[in-house]
Every structure is written in C-alpha cells, then in structure tokens.
Amino acid sequence: MKVLLTGAKGQLGRCFCDRLPTGWSVLATDSDSLDITDLEKVQSVVAEYQPDVIVNAAAYTAVDKAESEQDVAMLINEIGPKNLALAANACGARLVHISTDYVFDGEATAPYVEMAATNPLGVYGKTKLNGELAVSEIQPAALIIRTAWVFSEYGNNFVKTMLRLAQGRESLGIVADQRGCPTYAGDIAAALLVLLQKEAPGGIYHFCGNSEVTWSEFAEVIFASALQQKVLTQVPAVNGITTEQYPTPAKRPKYSVLNCTKIRNEGVELSPWKERVSFVVTRCQV
Fold first, then answer.
1. Is 112 a catalytic residue?
2. pLDDT for the residue numbered 87
3. Which domain does 17 fall in, by range?
4. Coiled-coil regions in this chain (predicted)?
5. Is residue 84 within 8 Å of 6, Cβ to Cβ?
6. Given 124, 154, 184, 255, which residue is catalytic?
7. If we measure between CA atoms, which residue out of 49, 110, 128, 72 comes closest to residue 119?
8. For the chain, which ranges sit under pLDDT 50?
9. How many domains is the chain partitioned into structurally?
10. Residue 286: per-residue pLDDT
C-alpha cells in the first residue's frame, strides 16, 4: 500500500508514521514540501507518486487565531482538502480526511451521531465543515474522521500545556463547563489503519476517547498521572471555572461528545485515553 501523507510533522502525522504496517510505504509531506492549497502542485506530486491512499492530516487548527485569519483557515481547511480529493480521483486513490467535533454547536445533551445537524460556532469549525462537504461531494468513497481533544507525545497539546503550567503554580483555573472526549493521536492513526485495511465504506465516522470529561477533569487526570510517575513532585490545585470566566476570541461548543457506534461496528475500539495520558506523561520533558 502506497500512502501519501500530508501534515506529517503534526501529532497525527507523526503517530501515523510510527504505526505504518510492514510492507506499506509512505511519502510523508508537510507544508514546506507540499502546499495543499496549490492545486497544480498537489496534482503534480500525486501524479508522480501514484498513491493508493491519501491521508490528509494537515489542518489549520489555531481555533482563536482563525477568527482573524479567516482566509488562511479557509485555504488550508477547505481548499486544501478539495484539491486533494480532486487529485485522488484523478489517480484512483482513496482519500482519508480528518475533521473535528467543532462542526457542532454544543447544544446537544447526548453524544452526536454522524448525521446530526452541524452548526459550527467559529471560523475554524466552519472551514472544517466546508472541507468535509467538498471532500464528500468530490469523492463519496472518502473516509472522513471527526475526532476531538487530541493529545500525544508530539507537538503542542493540552497534556503538555498542563505539565508546563504545573511548575511553580499553586493553583490553576481550568474550564469546567465544556465536555468532550480526549483522544490520543496514536489511537486515531490505528483507527485509520483498521478502516483502510478493512476497506470500510466511505462516509463520516466519529472516533474519540472512551469516556467524557470537562477540561478541568482532564487536567486532574494529567496531574494525578504525573505525580504517580514522579514526573512532577507537586501539582497545583485545579479550580473549575466557567467559559465566561475564560473569554476567548472563538466560541467553543460546551458539549461535543461524539457517538462512535458506527466506527466500533467496523472493529475499531475507542481510545483508552486515561491509559494513554500515562504513556504520554512519561515521554514529556518538564
């Protein structure tokens, strides 16, 4: 299997490369080696490499910055996936596209199924939704995976931020009225491989951690793990605050738990995120 991977230096991209099955080959690209917003360049690289699968792990993920950089977010999250879908069709490749829980408004009271009504609250969510729509229109067989609250041993993420902030702080105010499911990037990569190996039907799939928490509860799990593994000798008290007490340029969904029944029916187990937090904590230098 020949895979063209975009976003290779990101959390998911690096975890995907770590888990590549024996006998598979990958052309790992980043924004420097492949600008997915440049259709001509995308078509040239895809035509030359002739992949069986294109995995699009590239995205503009700066949620707050997107509010003031709408054009950049649109190029990367909408135009880029569209270009990849067009190039994939031209060479007979299948596209795998990664999306987000932020396509929802957070007004639900039960986990979102794939066909639930979308209503993104900010530019990031809107551009990611438009990317989904472009991909599904051009290539109905594409796999679109929505995930949430991603963390790993790579890049910048909530686990690393909490470990850094824990140093020298007696307490931290962490949002306690937004609920979601933390998800380890390595488990997302493993889920993609299962779907590809099974040749799962095209469409949207939800994949995330196996239990829901608030951001403040997530922080408590991180600190408990860091203490247990002696990565930290002391941790700050976690004080739950409201979204209103921590204003941000972009609105976040207050509830973005994803229903993952569909992907589980394809043989994919959900991310045991608390175990993965322990794994990641031991690999983070504080």
1. no
2. 97
3. 2-157+182-211+257-272
4. none
5. yes
6. 124
7. 128
8. none
9. 1
10. 58
